[in-house]
Write a structure and sequence with these properties.
2 copies of one chain form a homodimer. Chain A is built from 10 helices and 13 strands. The first copy, chain A, is globular, with a radius of gyration of 20 Å. Chain A is 38% helix and 23% strand. Chain A is an alpha/beta fold and 318 residues long. At the A-B interface, helix 8 of A face helix 8 of B.
Chain lengths: 318, 318
């Protein structure tokens, strides 16, 4: 019994083949070229699947199931992509299309949900059944598992924690609302906050750091802060508060075993997790009387979606 | 087959006896007198149960199950009350204690969860399996049902939507955090907002309305607004925005079929629901591409918790 996990992104499509214990045997990827018709993209996905199976010495008849994580609103029950922003998919019957090439059970879900499942099952969730997974990237993605079940919402349109308002009337978000968590806690938001602080303080070491990197990134403020820059410290302190505030909301709503944090920013390391942990302990509802929720760095990195996609197939999640 | 639903409050304990179709046959209540030892309170609950069964002509051996909705953190799996603020219960084995008096299966849950289940099953949820129930009372309570399952969180400490931050650094909340939804959208918050606006505008009709009622209540601003008072309109408009903001957060996270609103404020009626509905349509994630979420007034009123408690027993929810 072997499983395929496919992580579909705007830039590339990655696939891995896993044994029944969830061990990754082999992975490979192709470019998405998202402007193409969906039939071509899905054909490439099937091609990639066959290729990695062959390389791993696994016959296609030994593939028990294929899972896919896809960005956007995914209807896992009907096998339809309602819409996927970055890939121009709208109302695409991706499961049916894939099965034209390979006759196996196919399970699809939102990519953040898949990544959450991957981290919960095979990453720093250690198999926990109650996990909130937060990705701090271009946006803020959230995947939620309660009592072992992925929270999807009607037609897969739920679990959009990045679009919780945390500051009413605040920063404008790409979703059309103001004050979303994403508008404060995403890597893009951090860069905006960094830029603003740099403008106000021409003597900040952030200018030097940005020059070194050739651009302002999610690391600029953190790097300058570590060198003792006070303006940078103000930026990172505030940013950590923003991140923690949304996490506390998620804790109050879901009270999971753990909150796992992925995305580039999570590479800032354990001290960042410790800072968030302290705020969660202090401000989440019920204080010490309620069970502690652990804040941990996600460990599977860019492979979380692929692992989780495979887990969709292993657990037959529809 | 008959079921008992018990709604435990700080002031009174209400119980109803239901047939297997969920029809309420008879209800009664006793005073809680919450300063007593828990064994006395639980004895009263058993007494009340026996009394209503007898009045309904049902033998105690015909009672299939008893459900209880209790305010606070309830561990439905162990049958323990972790703590219940208003009743001075802490670490109380309520199921075991109740069974000393009456040997039946007993199911316990948080009162807001029970009310949500009651409204979803027997009220304006029309049996939907994806429902968010919001109570706008002294606090803001939330009960969440996804795919037919009550969201409880670890040890029943989740579903505290009232303590989502919607305005970081804003009003202080009783929970120790700032900017909670409850601090803006509860009836108590509305009264605070009303009081503040009255102080700033001595000519507002709100003064007259408050004098008529003998106090400032959740109705004061609404009543004055309906008489054309502009300051009152500003108060109610803002209040509605606060209510809607939290509901949009819940929609983005859970994408239910419907959001049901209970508590005193919901009596303001359909135009209030329509106003909230418009904001939800406009600002929830994905706009028209995502399934519509209906905002409706809860209809069971103060009996929702009792209905839901019975439903816990009917559906054997632990």
């Amino acid at each position: 019994m072997y499983y395929i996990g496919i992580d579909v992104g705007g830039m590339s499509i990655k696939a891995g083949i896993f044994d029944e214990k969830g061990k990754l045997l082999l992975k490979d990827s192709v470019r998405t070229l998202p402007e193409r018709h969906y039939s071509e993209i899905v054909a490439d996905m099937a091609e990639l699947t066959k290729r990695i199976a062959e390389k791993a010495g696994v016959g296609t008849d030994e593939i028990t199931g294929v899972g896919m994580g896809i960005p956007g609103t995914i209807n896992s029950k009907t096998g339809m992509i309602t819409y996927a922003n970055n890939i121009n998919f709208e109302k695409v019957p991706v499961v049916k299309e894939f099965q034209k090439h390979l006759d196996v059970p196919v399970y699809i879900n939102n990519d953040a949900n898949a990544a959450a499942l991957g981290e919960a099952e095979f990453g720093s969730g250690n198999g926990s059944k109650d996990v909130v997974f937060v990705t701090l990237g271009t946006g803020v993605g959230t995947g939620i598992i309660t009592d072992g079940v992925l929270l999807e919402g009607k037609c897969g349109a739920g679990a959009e924690g990045g679009h919780m308002t945390i500051r009413m009337g605040g920063e404008k978000c790409t979703c059309g609302k103001r004050g979303c968590w994403e508008a404060y806690a995403s890597a893009s938001a951090l860069m905006r906050q960094t830029k603003k602080a740099m403008k106000a303080d021409p003597s900040s070491l952030m200018h030097e750091e940005a020059a070194k990197e050739g651009k302002i990134s999610g690391r600029t403020a953190f790097n300058a802060m570590r060198r003792g820059d006070r303006t940078a410290k103000r930026v990172t302190d505030n940013y950590i508060k923003y991140v923690a505030e949304g996490i506390i909301n998620m804790v109050n709503l879901f009270r999971p075993d753990c909150v796992l944090i992925g995305g580039g920013i999570s590479n800032e390391g354990d001290w960042l997790m410790a800072k968030i942990q302290r705020r969660v302990n202090r401000f989440s509802f019920g204080g010490h009387r309620n069970p502690k929720v652990y804040v941990r760095k996600a460990v599977l990195g860019n492979d979380a979606g692929m692992y989780g996609a495979a887990a969709l197939a292993m657990k037959k999640i529809r």
